[in-house]
Design a protein that fits this description.
This protein has 494 residues and is mainly alpha-helical. The protein is 56% helix and 6% strand. The protein is built from 18 helices and nine strands. The chain starts with a strand and ends with a helix.
Length: 494
Amino acid sequence: MIQLTGNTLTIHEAKRVLFDNETVEISAKSMEKVIASRQAVERIVKDERVVYGITTGFGKFSDVYINSENVEELQLNLIHSHACGVGDPFPEVVSRAMLLLRANALSKGYSGVRPVIIDTLIQFLNAQIHPVIPQQGSLGASGDLAPLSHLALALMGEGEVFYQGEKVDASKALADANIQPVTLQAKEGLALINGTQAMTAMGVVAYIEAEALAKQSELIASMTIEALRGIIDAFDEDVHIARGYQQQVDVASRIRQYLSDSQLVTKQGELRVQDAYSLRCIPQVHGASWQALDYVKEKLEIEMNAATDNPLIFNDGEKVISGGNFHGQPIALAMDFMKIAIAELANISERRIERLVNPSLNDLPGFLSPEPGLQSGAMIMQYAAASLVSENKTLAHPASVDSIPSSANQEDHVSMGTIASRHAYQILLNSRRVLAIEMICAMQGVEFRGVENMASLTKEFYHQGRRIVSSIVKDRVFSKDIEALSAWLCAKRE
């Protein structure tokens, strides 16, 4: 069981909750802070103090005072009016991540919600009830208002959820799971939606899958090196230590490990003096992507444990401050960086695919065809890879450099971080398909060289892959192979 404190959640723990359905609870110490924060809100309402979002309207309406008898209606109206998400829903695992991250953020004790709000979020997680949350509609400041409003709707027994493999009305799922819907009280609607949990949740899921894909890309690239009789000298440790980037050193080390007993790799001068950059520079390019991913992980783990709503309550309510922690710029920049990092793994992979299929660049049968001319073999798989990496270049355009004012210019700079995280995930999906194509081609290439001559580790990976995609002995609908291998790589997250 994962215990939420508001301060200690890691990517590794999130992975266990998201993909292994590990259960969650809030720590007793954190609950004490939550209760104290809630008591402060209740005193503010009782004393009729003017505090943003508790006894005032929102955004441009922040100067409109709300009487104490209307504070519950204020929160209900907030959720209904802000539930403006459109488009396809986020993947179910991302919805699950939003529940986890919102529960953790509220557990910090700065938000003034009742314990029942956090308890209900945790009940949703443990019962695997996941709100249906449209992907589009967030500016990334004031947080992810539209997506998180759809999450809040589900807690209230409204909207739809994913439950037991189906999309159903939230009221039905809550009844089946014996969970009571919440009635929002002062500040609770605002506390639920004024945060960065949509962009961060999408970012966490994308990072977890990107980390796995980056590791897989090195094994796939190693198989390609064997298929092309690549020169192992370029991965010598001294070369990479001389430059000084640890991630580059680590990639080279792993490549040497994967190919340590290969009879297919060559030495400088045996067949040629140098390989093309897409082989020779794997540590430099993949290592740079690892540098970016390390940066992204650091920012995500900070944001996963951040207080991102507004206002924040300190000193038992003696200090209530309207700030801007909901602004998604740190995650927007990180997601834009991750987009580029993942896209580059696909870019260099596509160039390796070209070297595998182009008979002008190798001594393998043209397009790895069993009967060149009569059968096209992997010719159009390279086209598909080229299309995917080209699409990635469009998606990699930074979302964070854009901003459109909102709320009558009160909210005059926004992050577009949720767009960045969504595009990062689409780039990830595209890149995994490109690497699946490279693996299909590399497996075919090593068959021409002799599987028995492969390194032990790459040979095992080859045999695993062959259980998903059979050898190309005749042209067939390769789309099915690409999708099957891509799905296998996705499921193989370790």
